[in-house]
Amino acid sequence: MSQAKEADLHVWRGDGNGGGLVRYAVPLRDSQTVLDAVTWIQRRLEPGLSFRFACRVGMCGTCAMTVNGKPRWTCRTRLKDVVENGRVVIAPLENLPVIKDLACDFSSFFGKWGKAGGRFAATATRLDAVAAIRPDSRRRRLADAGIECINCGVCYSACDVVRWNPAYLGPAALNRSWTLVNDERDGGREKRLRAVAGAGGCHNCHSHQGCATLCPNELNPTLSIAGLKRATALAVLKGEM
Amino acid sequence: MIKPHRNHPLWLAFLLHRLSGVCLALYLPVHFLVLGLAIDETARLGGVLRWSETLPVEMAVMGLVFLLAVHLFGGLRLLVLEFLDWHDRQKSVAAAAVALSFAAAAAFFLQVI
Ligand code: SF4
Ligand code: SF4
Ligand code: FES
Fold it and tell me: What was the ipTM of the complex prediction?
């Protein structure tokens, strides 16, 4: 491992009342992630630095931060890939209130999952037989396409409509809603479609696909939201809502 | 400067659609004003029409045709995206909409000079 070079990490420090970038020199290592570098700062230079992480392998969705202006999973971003002229800027996610340093408050983000009808409405009990759903059925495939979301907030942070309209439910919550609309076992379709068709719902989306471009899981919330736009429009035409 | 999270072609397509819409909305009152001249001020209308045949104005009109075309094709692109089955060639469709708009504006210009 070469320790010959260092990178300047400009890390946002502060809280809900404001803050600014603080420079830390971090030795560059092979295969080192941005999360490794932030952890190094906390262990060696600044024990008070706050940030979140858990799995370190792109599964838990807690380590997202804004790296050089783009939201990313820091555990899956190699530091060397983002160093520009010896420098990287690391800030908290956007569109979420900052608690401290790099840790954001996700209450509004998850609150919107509830508002978008993100809760599964069971139509059977555990005593009933397991529902038989063909893996190749259209609805199963549509649900499959969006189901791997790990709630990291990257798409939400990248979405300009969330920035411009804080009531907008956002790509992740609407994507979740679309997976449930396609779940044949779910009984909450009408209520859910009403929830996503209202103010702040799917029709606010401008389809600029920042969410789909930046989702580290390569999900496509724009596709899901387009599905909701069609489903709600059809439901209105059929007089179902 | 474009913020890094916006630095992708489909965000630029959104921006172009929005700006062309705003410019067309600003232009529309002028358009109707000139049409209005045809009703009761034909002499002034003649003056405006002669002025509109000068090269700089022709070029500005070409710009307007481009705005109109890019807003139209961009709108169609969004309708296809949102109401037909998803396809993965979104960037190509956006690029085609811009290319078609340039072609429409160029055809208009070549025909008028
Ligand atoms: S859709 Fe992608 S970017 Fe958005 S929360 Fe889920 S995993 Fe993260
Ligand atoms: S496509 Fe819709 S949800 Fe995705 S970033 Fe754009 S406005 Fe937000
Ligand atoms: S730490 Fe779990 S996804 Fe990065």
Answer: 0.80
